[in-house]
Design goal:
single chain, Lysozyme, 5 helices, 2 strands, 9% strand
């Protein structure tokens, strides 16, 4: 006896959706899963690093917005990675994995602090600091 498939009782169980854990990108032939953060979580990380290194949180947040638009998995054509678009060499210099948002923000803020100290006596110090950050971070 033949029974049409569409007439067979078939119930698809409802499964809970997996939480969004992040986005994947390829890094030297390795697929990495980058944690996804809300803007609120990102701003909390920024506030912590800004306080830790004495950098205005608004400056760090504006760099994150300009560099990655708060996208943890952002990768530039030049190879800059993450929220603050760190080049792998710069991240390594500060002991960070640029794909980990907290480490990316910490290293980027620490690097920003170093640049602020370097240009503090120059006319238009903050503009020079930001220009130097963009140049070194890979966005030129």
């Amino acid at each position: 006896m033949e029974v049409a498939l569409e007439r067979l009782p078939f119930v698809v169980p409802s499964l809970p959706r997996a939480p969004k854990t992040g986005l994947a990108y390829v890094d030297s032939k390795i697929i990495r899963v980058v944690p996804s953060l809300s803007k609120k979580e990102t701003l909390a990380l920024i506030a912590g690093s800004a306080e830790k290194y004495g950098v205005p949180a608004a400056i760090v947040a504006s760099i994150v917005r300009a560099e990655s638009n708060f996208d943890c998995a952002a990768v530039s054509p030049k190879g800059a990675v993450g929220l603050m678009q760190l080049m792998p060499e710069t991240a390594q210099q500060y002991g960070a994995d640029p794909a980990i948002p907290a480490e990316n923000i910490d290293a980027g803020t620490q690097y920003l602090r170093w640049l602020m100290q370097r240009y503090q006596k120059h006319h238009h110090a903050m503009q020079k600091t930001i220009a130097a950050y963009k140049c070194r971070s890979g966005r030129s």
